[in-house]
């Protein structure tokens, strides 16, 4: 299986540092989560209900005509390849490894393409998968270019799959409005922006006919009652969303400045993390980990690396701890 950030248990085993002593910056999760309200215990006595307002809240939040809640966008990534016969699939890479893993696992002919290779290869593809903004380097091809790719694919009943897991902090960058058309499929993560990945909630935005096929694969009650109730409330909390975006943008700038002050110049990233190519990335990662600061390391060859991905600290104590660790390591 592909590696991911947030594997704190492995770090505990390797470095022997107790869980409560770690500062985990290995994931791209908002360190200031939406404040979940208390729920009556009776809510767990009922099966999830689809007329509870979640879909309506999601349509408004995403600006899409049709949405399908899923148990985390990861579930949709795993199921998407089952909805097509064997196809030639292009994945704009390097990117989130689960896309390639699942398309290959289901028997498709997968090609990993750099951005500047897409136009020359597109005529041979039935599906193109794009993460926008990209994970981990934050690359974000222009809207016009992406729409040109989709129009060419649509002419032969192909798909454009766009993973927008990290777009919530800059919602104007989303392509959600185009999902009313056939062949334009968007994956949205709930947990990253709202800081609640353990809730396991995500959304697929696409034409209703396509969503029906995915709904049939998911079966009944794929999303828990708690995820549906809290998800609907969070998606309607406009005040918190606006404050969260301001805080994330400020924290991202602060992290950029901090890294540069130690001679570590980021090469990109998203609002949720900074991405840093460095010849000594592995050594820096290990040295920080020995101090209880966990980052994500990408070995050479995976992302044009070697490189580090460093998430946002949450509290002032966390910021101070990262600064002290960088002073010892950089």
Beta-strand residue percentage = 15-25%
Major beta sheet, specifics?
7 strands, mixed
The radius of gyration is: 20 Å
Unreliable segments (pLDDT under 50, ≥5 consecutive)? Answer: none
**Whole-number total of structural domains:** 2
**Mean pLDDT, as a whole number?**
95
- Which descriptor suits the 3D outline? globular
- Widest sheet: strand ordering: 2-8-7-6-5-3-4
The CATH class of the largest domain, by name, is Alpha Beta
Q: Report helical residue fraction.
A: 25-40%
Distance linking N and C termini: 32 Å
CATH homologous superfamily identity of the largest domain: Type I PLP-dependent aspartate aminotransferase-like (Major domain)
CATH architecture of the largest domain: 3-Layer(aba) Sandwich
Order of helices and strands: HEHEHEHEHEHEEHEHHHEEHEEEH
CATH topology of the largest domain, which one?
Aspartate Aminotransferase, domain 2
DSSP summary, beta strand count: 13
How many helical stretches? 12
* Structural class assignment: alpha/beta
General description of the model:
The chain has 330 residues and is an alpha/beta fold. It has two domains: 8-33 and 239-329, Aspartate Aminotransferase, domain 1, CATH 3.90.1150; 41-236, Aspartate Aminotransferase, domain 2 (3-Layer(aba) Sandwich). 38% of the residues lie in helices and 16% in strands. The protein has twelve helices and 13 strands. It has helices spanning 8-15, 54-62, 73-79, 97-105, 118-121, 143-154, 191-194, 208-218, 225-236, 238-261, 281-290, 316-329; strands spanning 23-24, 67-70, 88-92, 109-113, 127-131, 159-163, 184-189, 202-205, 268-270, 273-277, 293-294, 296-298, 307-311. The strands form three sheets. Strands 2-8-7-6-5-3-4 form a seven-stranded mixed β-sheet, with helices on both faces. A four-stranded antiparallel β-sheet has the order 9-10-13-12, with helices on one face. Strands 1-11 form a two-stranded parallel sheet. Strand 9 and strand 10 form a beta hairpin. Helix 2 (54-62) packs parallel to helix 9. The longest helix is centred in the C-terminal third of the chain and has 24 residues, at 238-261. The model has no long low-confidence stretch (mean pLDDT 95).
């Amino acid at each position: 299986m592909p590696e991911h950030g947030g594997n704190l248990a492995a770090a505990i085993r390797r470095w022997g540092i107790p869980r409560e002593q770690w500062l985990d910056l290995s994931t791209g999760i908002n360190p200031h989560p939406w404040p979940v309200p208390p729920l009556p215990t009776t809510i767990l006595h009922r099966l999830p209900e689809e007329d509870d307002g979640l879909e309506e809240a999601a349509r408004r939040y995403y600006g899409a005509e049709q949405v399908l809640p899923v148990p985390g966008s990861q579930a949709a990534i795993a199921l998407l390849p089952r909805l097509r016969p064997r196809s030639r699939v292009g994945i704009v890479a390097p990117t989130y490894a689960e896309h390639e893993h699942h398309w290959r696992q289901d028997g498709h002919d997968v090609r990993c393409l750099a951005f500047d290779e897409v136009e020359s290869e597109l005529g041979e593809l039935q599906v193109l998968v794009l993460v926008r903004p990209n994970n981990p380097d934050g690359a974000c091809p222009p809207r016009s270019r992406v729409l040109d790719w989709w129009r060419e694919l649509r002419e032969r009943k192909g798909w454009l799959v766009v993973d927008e897991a990290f777009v919530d902090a800059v919602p104007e960058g989303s392509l959600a409005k185009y999902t009313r058309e056939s062949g334009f499929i968007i994956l949205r993560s709930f947990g990253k922006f709202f800081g609640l990945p353990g809730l396991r909630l995500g959304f697929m935005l696409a034409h209703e006919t396509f969503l029906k096929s995915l709904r049939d694969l998911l079966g009944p009650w794929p999303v828990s009652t708690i995820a549906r109730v809290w998800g609907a409330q969070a998606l309607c909390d406009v005040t918190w969303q606006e404050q969260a975006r301001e805080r994330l943008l400020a924290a991202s700038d602060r992290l950029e400045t901090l890294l540069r002050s130690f001679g570590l110049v980021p090469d990109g990233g998203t609002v949720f993390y900074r991405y840093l190519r460095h010849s000594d990335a592995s050594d820096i990662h290990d040295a920080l980990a020995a101090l209880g600061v966990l980052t994500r390391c990408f070995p050479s060859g995976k992302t044009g690396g070697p490189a580090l991905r460093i998430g946002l600290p949450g509290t002032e104590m966390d910021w101070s701890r990262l600064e002290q660790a960088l002073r010892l390591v950089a």
